[in-house]
Amino acid sequence: MTTPDLLGGLSPRPNPTLTPTTPVTALTPPVPSTAAVPAEAPPEVPAEVRAEVPAQPVSPATAPESPSLIPPPAGGFTPEAARADVPALHRTVNGHPLVWLDNAATTQKPRQVIEMLGTYYSAANSNIHRGAHTMAREATEAYEAGRAAVADFLGAPSPDSVVFVRGTTEAVNLVAQSWGRAHVGPGDDILVPVLEHHSDIVPWQQLAAERRARVVPVPLTPEGTIDQDTFADLLSYRTQLVAISHASNVLGTISPVREMTALAHRYGAKVLVDGAQAVAHLPVDVTELDADFYAFSGHKIFGPTGIGALYAKPEVLETMRPWQGGGNMIEDVTFARTAFAPVPHRFEAGTGHIGGVVGLLSALNWLSGFDREAVAAYETALTEYAHQALGTVPGLELIGPAAQKVGVLTFTLAGCTPEETAAWLDNDGIAVRAGHHCAQPALRHYNLESATRASLALYNTKEDLDQLTTSLLRLQDQQPTA
């Protein structure tokens, strides 16, 4: 996949996995110099936790000289190839090199994305569609190339099955208001597992209240997985929709989406998958999953904020009426009637986040340049190492020990509130998140109102986790003895 030739510039390293239907050439603007940040030796962690994760060298102190992504080794992956492209990972915080472990909230951006945004706004900014001038044509080509890239990335059958939205939250609301109002009625059920993010609970509650339907919670097991037996029992011909997280933002649990979807379809129910926490970590094929809807947010997959995508099966999308009205989503308007544009444009009222789509295209191109299977295997090993390392901290309790999970590590620490723990870590340059993580029902399953969360991405290393563990051990040393 390549980005459009906005300025007639140079092409970045080609990506064989993303091939849009619109032939475009690419541009990568000149690479600015990056200030060197002194690297510090990582602190020691007890030797018994140094398990099966391959040792990684200390992150490079400066950006690479080459303007292209450092190619990963044949058949493998190293996080240094990713770290070298991400400027924020080379800064200091409170006098320490930054350790970014807040990836479930947002990921840091590679320079390719940052520079492409600058290129778009400085030299190719224009509104899209219907413009007769060159820059309008270039911006439109970039925007639609982004749609094709998302379709390819998700394994969707056509770019026309992809709708651009502000993020996963807007995607869920779009489905609730457009599809839900037409198909959910009095006495119908919407099944929502307890592990869901608030954005996959509240819109269904609002719809259910309006349509006199029910939101039925699906309980969790002690390990933080969806109780599959209860799920099967709760399904019925009253079930109109099942909403599932592909991966939980607070427990990390990877749900058996394909199996749950197949079971729901037996009852004629549609399935919406919240993929916000999965797409950066797992290869996704919506055709294989057979999901009716799949949503994700760009900022959680190394792209800009304010942009995301909703995939919907073409036959389902065709039945949906627009949610918002205005420009860009119409064919013809009179005071007697309005004819709507074909899908997906009828769902994109007004001027979209064009720069966000260009940035998302660049992010997908960057991520797909790595061996995704190797990335997933690396992150799995890194997560196992994290569990072992954090297990050496007295009084630390990890929440949700599911066997299949992404690198989300939510925990409590005896004697410290989550906010105190996060503030201590921040003093050491370690960024984590504290609070309810917009998943209060999931935390309350463990009788908690808040917790601390460290979350991983492909650019994190064993050294990051060593620093996290050592800082927590120092914090515990500060606690008064009983």
From TrEMBL:
Signal peptide: none annotated. Gene3D superfamilies: Aspartate Aminotransferase, domain 1, Type I PLP-dependent aspartate aminotransferase-like (Major domain). It holds the Pfam family Aminotran_5. It is an enzyme of class 2 (transferase). Its cofactor is pyridoxal 5'-phosphate. CDD domains: SufS_like. Residues 1-80 are annotated as: Disordered. Residues 99-468 form the Aminotransferase class V domain. Its EC number is 2.8.1.7. PANTHER family: CYSTEINE DESULFURASE, CYSTEINE DESULFURASE 1, CHLOROPLASTIC. This is cysteine desulfurase. It comes from Streptomyces albiaxialis.
